[in-house]
Structure formats: structure tokens, C-alpha cells
Write a structure and sequence with these properties.
By secondary structure, the protein is an alpha+beta fold. Helices cover 50% and strands 17% of the residues. Strand 7 and strand 8 form a beta hairpin.
Length: 810
Amino acid sequence: MRSIVQDLRFAMRMLGKNPGFTVVAVLTLALGIGANSAIFSVVDAVLLRPLPYRDPHRLIYLSQVNLQTQTNGIFLSFPKYTQIAEQSRTMESVAAYFAATLNYVTKREPEALNGARATGNFFHVLGIAPVLGRTFLPEEELPGAADVAILSDGFWHSHFAGDEHVLGRSIVLDGKTATIIGVLPASFSFPLQFPEPDVWLPRVTDAPFLRPEQVRTGAGYLVVLGRLRDGETLARAQAEFDGINARYREQFGGYADANKYGISAVLLETNIAGGMRTGLMVLLAAVGFVLLIACVNVANLLLARATARERELAIRKALGASGSRLVRQLLSESVLLSFGGGALGVCLAAAAIPLLRAFSPGSVPRLADTRIDGAVLAFSLILCVLTGIVFGLMPALQAARGELHEMLKEGTRGSTEGGRGKFRSALIVAEMAIALVLMTGAGLLIESFAHLMRVNPGFAAQNLMTFQFNLPPDHYGQGPQMTEFYRELIERVKTLPEVQAAGVTSYLPLTGAIRFVYFCPEGRVCEGIGKDPLIAIRQVSPEYFDTVRTPLLHGRVFSDKDTAAGQPVVIVNQTVASRYWPGQNPIGKHLANSRDMLQREVVGVVGDVKFNALNVANSEEMYVPLAQIPWQATALIVRSQSSTQPLVAAVRAKIAEIDPNLPVTGISSMEDVLSASVAQPRIIMEFAGVFAGFALLLSAIGIYGVMAYSVSARKQEMGIRMSMGAESRDILKLVVGQGMRLTLLGAVIGVAASLALTRLLASLLFGIRTADPLVFTGATLVLVISALLACYLPARRATRVDPIIVLRYE
């Protein structure tokens, strides 16, 4: 122990005598270790840390899967949920909920809350107990029962100042009074829903967006969670659900979800991580490569420093120091450097985490839970130890392995190369190969994102603002009332001088909000609910298409004459027209809702619009007049002449003129909506690009350092060559050629490694192949050019060597 302390003290003194070397090495390592710690903290929060529920590994997420398209994640219906809850034997309990926007009326400005309705056992399934009050009772789930509310901790503090006597107080939600019965703990989080609900209510059968008969006959709208019995497995549960679904199909063959859907079960933590799992693993691997390159650079610095210390090491060996003692001494220095870089890196990671949260609110699940905790510190500690050994061991062995006679003989000049020169060259080759792998991967992600952003969303997002609201049923319970509100709202908003157009829609593009109905197009034999094809339905005002600038391809758009009393009409998208009436004029054709067989005449065909995501294939969609099928939860879309922000206050004032108690939510520009829809691929692309940039910079610094050291060590050789008649261009060619041979060898290895490793990116790419020749060529050229510049600077210095001065000095 005494000798270890001596080694550490001596290492600190030696590092202190070389502050320039120490600072460069610590900063290089801090960059690599800090980036790894920051990304690992996100991976830990999103993928590794258990969900904050009782026995989270037993919680599963249930959804429906379309058996024809294999589309997953579709909400379950109430009858199917009931069937699962009653018949499952692998489940300890099953619960359900659906999210809803609630209008909260107070004496202040009206407010829209993020709410949810859940089954009575919902919190029991999660294993969550309120800090105040209780959860729902069975009788509170019965139809017609009085509303009760459970508050989130945030809402309790923001609206009731954390009053412990809040139980029993009443709040008015959607025009109905609800009694507060409980408050959830501050530790409770629900990443399955973003933003998280402020208020929880009972009775999942009270779905305002569905008619009672739709709730009873298979409309999917419920998110269903289950808890596996102790000892049961997900595979056995899935087999049981397949049997339940088969019996459901036999018993309720006429229900909307009976024939085309199966039941899918995944672990809740897997579902929450979603598509970020692959992306985060890619980023963790990328940042690991950055650390490897940093280690290579520091290893080269240590090799150069060991060469300069040959006389010192030779004397220590002559005085009796063993090779293992010299290795331990040199490793002490490298580990100290590593821990210094690690300490600074953790500080950099801690500073970066708030930026990560602000950079991507809501697009990465559980990102708010990211922090520097014990797991991240342990990861950083292990990383420091491994890093110190990785970059310090080989230089230490090289330094301690030399023959004493040779070390004393060459120590006067400090220019011995031998195996160290070959090892440095091998490190540079490895560094170049790793850098090229990172650059190729980043190039593929960048090119993929560029392809994604070139996809036509079907509307013009510039200067478009959205305002969402939910009409309370106590004031707008009838269709004519809703229709009149929308008509008056559009008229008032259009009077604003900066407004070009305004319209209303039931669902905004690119938000993932969607509602399907079964339909029967003209020319096809109708089979009924559950067997006919599905089509997405949107209710829009006549001005909608002009406002969003979705192109009209055939026929006409809706007009003020398309009222509830008029002829039922519909507009379909291009996908419907080409799929069901290829080569025909779709105008005048009819399609019917499979539920009531109401025939609607096709009066127009519009371009396809991306309602789910830019990388999702166009689906079959139809638009119906809002006046013929009024909808309570809608969005006002306003197109301005220039900037959209000045519109916010003016539009809110117009809404307040009609209904001062109607809260407005979802105020955002469609450019922000478009940006949010590609947030996850953008985050992965940007971070991969940053890490590739770091890798390129570090690799260029690495080869520059090696070539600069080589030039310095070979001054005598350069002087002799020039005295024998070599010209500057010969010296330039010699030095640059040496560096470029290493670079090209590294590039060849890097291309081969990239062809193998970039296959792992296939699920993250859109519109390109994993072996895209343009990306591979571009990445290789950038690497070669940067290495050429890095080699040129030392080579220029070599051409300025004065042979007389060098030879006289030698």
C-alpha cells in the first residue's frame, strides 16, 4: 500500500511538471467520458431504470394488432377489455384508461386540463397508493354515478397550494361537478401519457367522443394495462390472449374489432421505450467510439512522453526497478489522468443534462427522469478505471520492455523508435477506421433525415397556427349548437387584418390522432362491420382545404350548402380514389358507412396528407363536412400573411367573444407540429453528427500529433537528406506519404467495418440503403482530406529544416 501511495504521489509530481501535456490529456478524456456519462444517463432513465411501480417487470401493455397490415398499438374496445379481465387466468388484474382534455372553469381564466378516465382498479394494478384520500370505489364506476377526482401532485400544488384539507372540495370539469377524493404522490409519474394527466376520473364508459352504441359494439379507445400473476410468463399470457380473441370473434362477430384484430402483449417498460431503444443503443455505441479515439490520442501522447523519458526510465531500471514496478508507475499516471478527465467529464455531463431535457421535451419518454445518480457515477467510475488501463497499459509496457543498454545509449537523444513507432502507427490506423465508422453511420442518418424532410406532408406548414379546444357538452350538446359555434368563430377570425384563411378540423395532420370507421366503397360487395375495409375519417369545415393548402385534384371542396339537412357528401384522398376506382372518375361515386349504410356521394378528391408521420405510408382517408357530423374536440387552423405569433392574442380574444369560459389548448404553429413529428429521428441524427464531428477532430489531432512527433524525432535524417540534395517537395512527399499510407489503410479497414456495422441502423433509416455509395464515398473523402491537412502542417515544418544547423547540433 505504501508503494502504491508513493507511485501516486510521484505520478502527481510528474504530471504537475508537464502542465501542457496534463491539460491536453485531461480535456481529451473529459470530452470522451463526459459524453459517455451523459448518454448513459439517458439510457439509464429510458431503458434500464425500473418503472416507479410495484414489481414493474410484471406489468404488461395490451393493444390490438391489425392482422392484415400488422399495424400494432391500436387501442382496445371496452367489450374486448371486459372479456380479457373476466377470462384471463395469467393476469392478476387488468385495468384500462383513456386520455381526455377537460375544461376547468374557475373565477380566473378558463383552463384546459390534461385528464384521464380510468377503471377503479387502475392504481391498484400499478401498485400506487395516494398520499391523501383514496382511489376509486366499485360503485363509482356505475353509469350515472357522481364524478369524483384524484389529483396529481403537481396540480394539487399549483391550484390548491398543497392544501391538506383539499379532500371533499369540488371542481367543475366539462360543466360537471367532481368531488376530490385523493392526491397522488409526488413520485408518481406516468410516461405512457404526455403531457401527464392532472386529474383522474372514473368510468371509462363515459367517452364523449363516442356514441353509447359505439362503446358497446367494439370501438377501440382504451389503453389497457395488466399485471402478470407471480410465476407467469409473457409468452403464456400471449397464448391465452390469442384464445380469448378467438372466442371474442366467435361470440361478437358483428362488433367492429372482432374480425381484423388480434391482441398483442408486451412488457410495459418495452412499450414505453418504444422506438428509442435502437436509437439510444446506437448513440451509446457512437459515443463509446469517441472515447476509444480519445484513448488512442492519449496513448500516443504517453508513448511520445515515454520516449522523452527514456534516460529517466533507464536510470531507474539500472538502480534496480523491475519492469513490473515501472509499468505500475506509468499506469499510476495514466489512471490519474483518467480520473481527472472523469471528474471533469461528469461535471460536463451534469451541465449537459438540463440541455438534453430542454432540447427534446416529450419526444423521448422518461427523459425528465434523467439525472446523475449512483448508477451513472458507478458507470463513470468503471469507465475511468477501464479507460486508464486501456490507454496506459500498452505505452507502459512499451516503455518498460526496452533493453537497458539500448535505453542508456539512445537516451541521450530521445529518438528511439522501433516497436513504439509501429505501435503508434497501428493506433493511428485504428483511430482512422473508428472515425470512418462513426462518420459513415452519421452520414447515413443525416441522408435519411434529409430524405424524410423531403417528403411532402400534403399541406403548407408555413404561417399556419393551430388552436385546439373541446366544446363542453353542457353548452354544446347538440349538433346545431356546435355547427353555429364553428361558423361564427371562423367568420370572426377572418375579420382580423393579418388572417388570410381559417378553418376547423377534428384532427390535425402529423399528430397521430386518428379515428377509423368501416366503409363500403361503390363497386365492392359490403360484408359489414369488422369485415369491410377501414378508412380514417376527418370532419372539416368548408374553408379547411384552402387554409392548409391541400391540393384539390378532382371535383370540389365543401361549401356552406353541405349542411346536416343537405345531401350526405364526402371527399376522399388520392389513395382511396386510386385503390377502389383505378382509371375511373371517382366524382359521383358513393361510399357507405358500414354501421348505418348511409350512402355518401364523392364530390372531391384531394392530395394525400400525412396524419401519422412522414415515414408512414399514406392511408385511406375521407373527409366529411363538420356540419353533417359535428365534433366536440376540434382544432382551429389560421393562416396569416407573415408571422403567426401576433395572431395568438387576437384569436384568443375572438374565441372569448363567443364563449369566455372556453379554454384553448394546443396553441402552436404547424411548423412546430411538423418539427415535433420528426423529433426522435432528428435527435438521433444530430447527436450522431456531433459525435462523428468529435471523432473527425480527434483523429485529425491524433495523426497531426504523430506526424509532428515523427518530424521532430527525424530532424537529423531530414537534414542529411537535404544535404544530399533532396528538395522541399521530396521531404513534403515523404512526410505526407507516411501519414496518408496510415490514413488509407485505416480507411480501408473502416469501410469494411462500416459495411458490417451500419446494417444495425436499418430500422432507423428512411429512403436509403445501409450501404449507400454516396455516403460511404463522402465520408471517406472527408476523412482523407482532413488527414491530408493534418499531415501537411508537420510536413511543411520538415521542409524548413536547416541541414547545417541540425548536423552541427547533432
